[in-house]
Automatic annotation (TrEMBL):
It comes from the Eukaryota. The keyword rRNA processing does not apply. Belongs to the iron/ascorbate-dependent oxidoreductase family. InterPro entries: DIOX_N, IPNS-like_FE2OG_OXY, IPNS-like_sf, Oxoglu/Fe-dep_dioxygenase_dom. The lineage of its organism: Eukaryota, Viridiplantae, Streptophyta, Embryophyta, Tracheophyta. Pfam families: 2OG-FeII_Oxy, DIOX_N. GO terms for molecular function: 2-oxoglutarate-dependent dioxygenase activity; L-ascorbic acid binding; metal ion binding. This is Fe2OG dioxygenase domain-containing protein. Residues 199-300 form the Fe2OG dioxygenase domain.
Amino acid sequence: MGEVDPTFIQDVEHRPKLTITEAEGIPVIDLSTLNSPDISTEKNCKELASLVAEVKNACKKWGFFQVINHGVSLECREKIDLASRKFFALSKVEKRRVKRDELNSMGYYDTELTKNVRDWKEVFDFTVENPTMIPLSHEPDDKELKELHTQWPDYPPELREVCEEYVQEVQKLSYKLLELISLSLGLSAKRMNGFFKDQTSFVRLNHYPPCPIPHLALGVGRHKDAGGLTILAQDDIGGLEVRRKTDGEWIRVKPTPDAYIINVGDTIQVWSNDEYESVEHRVVVNSERERFSIPFFFNPSHYTWIEPLEELVNEKKPAKYKAYNWGMLFTHRKNSNFKKRDDENLQIHHFKA
Ligand SMILES: O=C(O)CCC(=O)C(=O)O
Ligand SMILES: [Fe+2]
């Protein structure tokens, strides 16, 4: 097995149990009602109301759910999956030609830290908007912006095109989900859409190679997603674990062919004034098989100030957070994935009112 870099080793309390608890409970929600051309009939109204109720229950209970009949074409998903496999099969030298650096956080890298421990994975990130504007530094007084541009590799030559097609399709699903979540919070369907103009969303191709020490390391350490929503395609290997709210147990999300796994991020937690919570999750790796996954992080514009929506604040439920700037948080997080540092990552609890 050889020596494994000690930066991969998790503290004892965070090491995974290799016996799997697979939950029956993480809901699978059928979105076919939304594909119907005639959404305004009485039957459809009823179906929509029950769909919204399912979304609400899932968000309350788990913070996670899977969707089927979501409208993203399987062909499109298969194409990006294949291109991703071809890219990661290249040599490290080839992949590092499109490596991310301090100035551009998009591209390839294999040294991501989650809570200061290295993840057993390699990734390729690309943005939705080109360019994507974010603050240059996370200092609140520094108003300078920078442009993120995706660095596309030469191989496989179709990568850029299939990624761009995939984003188009997943975007449509993101807005459908955002609208369902809005309705489920008692808001108008499009209440949150405006925050996603000039979005800082990005897609990540993840590759988790087989790991000789799956009991000591993690593919991704425990974390919560900071943005609005995450829409994840996982393959048939499995490894994603979600912290169950009722008892804190780590529950494996069962791979379901052609489904997407959805979770609400910290941003929706704050907008909802803690009506919904962003739930901790992690990825367990295994010694035999490599795993691939593709999360889409649906994030607001850098100039969005995140705070509880006024409709969800009242005397009984005062605002639980002070407003913070999304761009500043995004830049802070990006820099900390990059460099080991002593201070804690910036988290929403730092903005508790
Ligand atoms: O690969 C997965 O299943 C999940 C990855 C994840 O949680 C993330 O990249 O934020
Ligand atoms: Fe995540």
